[in-house]
Write a structure and sequence with these properties.
Number of helices: 16
CATH topology of the largest domain: Metallo-beta-lactamase, Chain A
CATH class of the largest domain: Alpha Beta
Radius of gyration: 24 Å
Low-confidence stretches: none
Length: about 475
């Protein structure tokens, strides 16, 4: 039976496929936040509106795909930061750790920590019971251990000494001997949904139940542990370049997010001076506007898509950034970059269109090919480098004959595999990522670069006619 005093709200950040939670007990006024995003005022404002005080922040693990707001909440409301026992000694700020089976009381509302290693060694899930520690579980916050339709990938830490196979074995145990022991009616609230690089088959749904996942999740189908290990380690996409940076940053006492709303306004001369120092210029306009005219050397990552994630794939963390964008978008772009820990925005170009018209020598167009022009180029241009920048799972469904697969997250590290003297055409599924890739190549000195309008989807549709 649910407790009318229990408060539970999910916050879903579409541009990062990130879910966070506010859980409270109205009878005592105590509340916690689970896996918060870095801009934390919404949790504080909602808690205040409900008569709640945030006392703790629970982190299900060291996140790699975003910079958590745990330190911001600790600073703003004095909340303690809580991790599973395996996080002990691995951070450089004060934390409380809880071991498997330990309970945390908000009043009638009870929270139980389950240590569920697999996605990472310190991963935990949090069971919430509305009427004390012996009442029936209402929900479980599964972090990146169990998603809707998938489970957390165990390979992200292979670069820092953890075996994907070992973590996958631990994940199997965590799922079958801990989470699957919960009642079928227990609601499942994960930390991510479709689009996240933390798994390969995440659903667009943001809440499920243990029973539904038992029936429909491929990773929970009856299989031996070795079959499970193969299933969850194969076919994973290349992790975005910034993941290791964010995971390390989440363990450090880093600078807090401060939304001052002030961004330095730069003339085109100021932007060129920044470029000369190695600053990366990110143009957040849509791909068609960028193609029509942009500052030479800038990289196009449209704000309408997964902006922060893709910026994190095309530049080294910590590099200074200048923004170019449509009027009124600067603050949004800066905030979205801060959510992955990219705080070094040094300025924004004032009135880009006017600046481009008045300084044509610093402006260039992007070559974009229709499917017909693309097919003609394949048949007539010698030494054409055709690059498929989609993820592995997409490529497995089909590609264009003669293309080489270099996924977008790998491109920056593999530029030396492509001959700068050869013409290059890049393509993705629909055109958004290929504009990013083409502009990245141009910014690194490639001269003859085009991308395919409409991507592989448009090309394959024409072949079917």
């Amino acid at each position: 039976m649910e407790n009318a005093n229990m408060f539970l709200r999910q916050y879903y950040l579409q541009c990062l496929s990130h879910a966070s939670y506010l859980v409270g007990d109205r009878s005592t006024g105590k509340a916690i936040v689970i896996d918060p995003q870095r801009d934390v005022d919404q949790y504080i404002n909602d808690a205040t509106a409900e008569g709640l005080t945030i006392t703790s922040v629970f982190e299900t693990h060291f996140h790699a795909d975003f910079l958590s707001g745990h330190l911001e909440l600790a600073s703003k409301v004095g909340a303690e930061v809580v991790y599973g026992k395996s996080a002990e000694g691995r951070v450089d700020f004060p934390i409380r750790t809880m071991q498997h089976g330990e309970h945390f009381s908000l009043g009638d509302v009870d929270l139980e920590v389950l240590e569920t290693p697999g996605h990472t060694p310190e991963s935990v899930c949090i069971v919430v019971r509305p009427n004390g520690p012996t009442s029936t579980p209402h929900a479980v916050f599964t972090g990146d251990t169990l998603f809707i339709g998938d489970v957390g990938r165990p390979d992200l830490l292979s670069a820092v000494g953890f075996s994907a196979d070992d973590l996958a074995h631990q994940l199997y145990d965590s799922l079958h001997n801990k989470l699957m022991l919960l009642p079928d009616a227990t609601k499942v609230y994960p930390a991510h949904g479709a689009g996240s690089a933390c798994g390969k088959n995440l659903s667009t749904e943001t809440v499920s139940t243990i029973g539904e996942q038992r029936r429909t999740n491929y990773a929970l189908a009856p299989m031996k542990v070795d079959q499970f290990v193969e299933a969850v380690t194969q076919g994973q996409s290349v992790a975005p370049l910034y993941f290791l940076f964010a995971a390390n940053k989440n363990r450090q006492a880093h600078e807090l997010y401060a939304d001052s709303g002030v961004i330095k306004q730069l003339s085109i001369e100021g932007v060129l001076a920044e470029q000369a120092k190695g600053t990366v210029v990110i143009d957040s306009r849509d791909d068609m506007s960028f193609a029509a005219g942009h500052l030479r050397g800038s990289i196009n990552v449209g704000l309408s898509g997964r902006f922060a994630e893709y910026v994190g794939e095309v530049m080294e963390p910590g590099t200074a950034i200048v923004l170019i964008g449509d009027s009124g978008t600067d603050a949004e772009a800066k905030m979205r970059l801060a959510r992955i820990g990219f705080d070094n925005v040094v300025g924004v170009l004032v009135d880009p269109v006017k600046a481009f018209v008045e300084n044509p020598d610093h402006v260039e167009r992007m070559s974009r090919l229709s499917v017909e022009a693309f097919n003609e180029r394949i048949n007539t241009v010698r030494n054409l480098n055709l690059i498929d920048i989609r993820n592995s799972g997409e490529v497995e469904q089909g590609s264009i004959t003669g293309s080489r697969h270099i996924s977008l997250p790998s491109l920056l590290k593999r530029l030396d595999e492509i001959d700068k003297s050869d013409p290059v055409v890049v393509f993705c599924a629909g055109g958004y990522r290929s504009s990013i890739a083409a502009s990245l190549l141009k910014s690194h000195g490639f001269t003859d670069v085009s991308d395919l309008i409409g991507g592989y989807s448009a090309w394959s549709a024409l072949q079917a006619l």
